[in-house]
From TrEMBL:
Keyword annotations of the record: ATP-binding, Nucleotide-binding, Transport
Name of one Pfam family that matches: ABC_tran
SMART domains recorded: AAA
Membrane-spanning residues: none
Species the sequence originates in: Kribbella soli
Protein's UniProt name: ABC transporter ATP-binding protein
Keyword Phosphoprotein among UniProt keywords: no
GO molecular function, one term: ATP hydrolysis activity
Length: 315
């Protein structure tokens, strides 16, 4: 089972530039969370702060009783072993073939024999659909294959927490769906806690248990998927529905003139909340809830047509 990540009052700046302030949220153990936000709002900085690669100015990140923000290097080294990370750029070693790239964390962090390493590497390569490409160099394969190789590498130490930065950037819709399915199936099988950063609205609407949104140097909202998808909060609503009308503009925030020009424009109604994507087994994941459960519990009427195709097996 994955572990909980509890973030309290986290603040990060570079010099005088505040990136985000006072961020508090909990990634519940074994659940899938997505973090959204316009480009440059500090999503990648947030991931790097969670694993202690960047030090926050203030606040805490508690993982199994250790505060990443203040612990010693030795403790950080131990806690980091709980994490698997897919960085935004893949961070592959260009001169190593995919096999050696994926094997790298095992050779660095364990004393496993080469034959044990081989069986782990091949198992993860198979999970992400890359068997047969082991000898290729990162420069010789497509962007989508590099992302999948990066995911395989993030998995070799059987992480309890998986941080995945834009797994779908530059991927076509079919490969994005494939990669989403791989992550959902992984979560069903091993229950790691997931935090996925994405710009893909469809992924955000259908994959996670919880959604967060960074905007304008703070966490605009974080909560269950159905809460954000039924929210009328302007920033959340605009982003999750990919609309042009709303407070977010091309340069993050619209200016007063732009907003005045929009005054009185009617927002389209909220679209139906889609059913959450299921694992390949067709069963609910251990932490996945029945469609509409959150709305029912909170007395929220979801937009008409929500959960229309809900035919799920119970676990
Ligand atoms: N090491 C660093 N030193 C100084 N500034 C940095 C550093 N890393 C990031 N920044 C700044 O922090 C801000 C947030 O960057 P970040 O990469 O986290 O954005 P993002 O939300 O991931 O954007 P995108 O969606 O384009 O990936 C940017 O203004 C960036 O220039
Ligand atoms: Mg980023």
């Amino acid at each position: 089972m994955g572990v909980e990540v509890r973030v309290e009052g986290l603040t990060k700046s570079f010099g005088s530039q505040l990136i985000w302030g006072d961020v508090s949220l909990t990634l519940p153990a074994g659940e899938i969370c997505v973090m959204l936000g316009p480009s440059g709002t500090g999503k990648s900085v947030f991931l790097k702060t969670l694993i202690g690669l960047l030090k926050p100015d203030k606040g805490h990140v508690y993982i199994e009783g250790t505060d990443i923000a203040t612990c010693s290097e030795r403790e950080l080294y131990d806690v980091r072993r709980l994490f698997g990370v897919l960085f935004q750029d893949g961070a592959m070693f260009g001169s190593m073939n995919l096999y050696d790239n994926v094997a790298f964390p095992l050779r660095e962090h364990t004393k496993k024999s080469e034959s044990d390493i081989r069986s782990i590497v091949m198992e993860k390569m198979e999970m992400v659909g890359l068997v047969g490409a082991e000898k290729k160099l990162p420069g010789e394969i497509s962007g989508g294959m590099r992302k999948r190789a990066g995911l395989a590498r993030a998995l070799v130490l059987d992480p309890q927490i998986l941080l995945v930065d834009e797994p779908d950037s530059g991927l076509d819709p079919v490969r994005t769906s494939f990669l989403n399915q791989v992550m959902i199936d992984l979560n069903e099988a091993f229950s790691p806690t997931f935090l996925i950063v994405t710009h893909d609205v469809n992924t955000a609407r259908t994959v996670p248990d919880n959604i967060g949104m960074l905007y304008h140097r703070h966490l605009a909202m974080f909560g269950p998927r159905e809460m954000l998808l039924s929210s009328e909060e302007p920033v959340v609503r605009q982003f999750l529905n990919a609309q042009m009308v709303g407070p977010i503009g091309m340069s993050e925030e619209k200016d007063a003139d732009e907003l005045a020009a929009e005054a009185g424009q009617e927002l389209p109604p909220l679209p139906p909340i889609p059913i959450q994507q299921l694992p390949s087994s067709g069963m609910l994941r251990p932490t996945q809830r029945e469609p509409g459960a959150w709305c029912r519990e909170h007395g929220i009427t979801p937009p008409p047509g929500s959960f229309a195709t809900a035919t799920v097996g119970a676990r």
